[in-house]
Amino acid sequence: MFAAEWGTGQVLWSITWFFLFVLWISLVFSVFVDIVRSRNMSGFTKALWTLAIVFLPYLGVFMYLIVNGSHMNERTERAANESDEAMQSYIRQAARSSSADQLTTLADLHNVGKLTDTEFSAAKAKVTAG
């Protein structure tokens, strides 16, 4: 009954407004993230931009985009690169400790006598090579 009262144009218009609302929220969050991520702004400047966006949303966001929009992509890329470097560093560190653990286990097995000299050498070469 309720759906019968809505025409196709009204549904399309509502979907358009919903899409614009989601787009606006996404833009506001992007600006807030960029404000927090910025290293060249003081805390006072960040607070002023935040207040401007909270109390004058459209003017604040559009002014921020005009003033700092060209640097937003640079900060996003820098954050992504730092994240990638941290992940690569962690992977390298984990791989190193894993190889060291394997070598320790092999040495213990060799000392106990469970591995012969040739088996130990072959296993050691495999761990250090890969």
Task: Please specify the SSE layout and strand pairing.
Layout: H1 2-5, H2 8-37, H3 43-55, H4 57-112, H5 117-129
Helix pairs in contact: 2-3, 2-4, 3-4, 4-5
Ends apart, CA distance between termini: 69 Å
Low-confidence stretches: none
Number of helices: 5
What is the strand content? under 5%
Radius of gyration: 29 Å
User: How many separate domains?
Assistant: 2
Average pLDDT taken over every residue: 87
Helical fraction equals over 70%
Give the overall form. elongated
Total strand segments: 0
Q: Which structural class matches the secondary elements? A: mainly alpha
Largest sheet: none
**H/E element sequence:** HHHHH
What features would you describe in this structure?
- The protein has 130 residues and is mostly helical.
- It folds into 2 domains: 7-72, no CATH class; 80-130.
- Helix content is 89%, strand content 0%.
- The protein has 5 helices and no strands.
- It has helices spanning 2-5, 8-37, 43-55, 57-112, 117-129.
- Helix 3 crosses helix 4 and helix 4 (57-112) packs antiparallel against helix 5.
- The protein is elongated.
- The model has no long low-confidence stretch (mean pLDDT 87).
